[in-house]
Inverse folding.
């Protein structure tokens, strides 16, 4: 699954996040990378406990909590502490890599299995050149560059990169999700079923058929979910 979700943050929340980053204490992004990723990573990142990162993280978590599409697609069990990064100047790319299967979140003391990788864009696409997130999937390379406040979800197993930023700065949040449903195929089936049910209700209201299919959805979730 590779899914774009618009408007996780409102324009006002995006503006707040951008203002927090004007004088932020950027550091070398390689500090949080594994040995393979360090060889291809060249960006900047905020210390996860600095004030700007803490406030932006709170904005993001509120945005995720109020978005039903995010919940339906990800079925989150644990969300790894969101981080904030910047690509600009000489620190402007992240070559092909695969995210670590398990991440340790120091603020919660939890280990999080990275079933789903997520990027929330904080810069409008016309404010920088390059910087596309390129995700390799079964349909070939998928190039992603979304409006500020929008989110992309993709499989944590994917090889991906951020192409060099040649003008301006690309600001984003990134994080991982351990899903209640470990299987990507099962999550996709549940998301498709939930999406079609929503469409049927919008067209026909509540019917015996939608009630029955809702039961099927929850019985599948009950069978597959690990809480």
């Amino acid at each position: 699954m590779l899914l774009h979700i618009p408007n996780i943050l409102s324009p006002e929340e995006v503006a707040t996040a951008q203002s927090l980053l004007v004088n932020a204490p950027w550091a070398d992004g390689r500090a949080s990378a594994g040995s393979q990723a360090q060889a291809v990573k060249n960006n900047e990142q905020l210390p996860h406990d600095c004030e700007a990162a803490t406030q932006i993280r709170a904005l993001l978590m509120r945005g995720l909590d109020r978005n039903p599409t995010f919940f339906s697609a990800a079925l989150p069990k644990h969300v790894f502490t969101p981080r904030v990064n910047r690509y600009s100047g000489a620190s402007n790319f992240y070559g092909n890599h695969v995210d670590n299967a398990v991440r340790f979140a120091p603020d919660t003391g939890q280990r999080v299995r990275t079933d789903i990788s997520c990027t929330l864009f904080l810069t409008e696409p016309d404010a920088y050149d390059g910087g596309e997130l390129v995700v390799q999937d079964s349909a070939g390379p998928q190039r992603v560059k979304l409006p500020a406040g929008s989110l992309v979800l993709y499989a944590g197993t994917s090889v991906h990169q951020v192409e060099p930023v040649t003008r301006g700065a690309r600001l984003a949040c990134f994080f991982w999700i351990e899903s209640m449903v470990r299987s990507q195929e099962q999550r996709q089936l549940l998301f498709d079923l939930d999406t079609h049910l929503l469409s049927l209700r919008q067209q026909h209201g509540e019917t015996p058929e939608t009630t029955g299919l809702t039961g099927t959805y929850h019985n599948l979730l009950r069978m597959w979910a690990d809480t």
About this structure: The first strand starts at residue 2 and ends at 5. The first helix runs from residue 11 to 20. The chain is about 35% helix and 30% strand. The two ends are 22 Å apart (CA to CA).
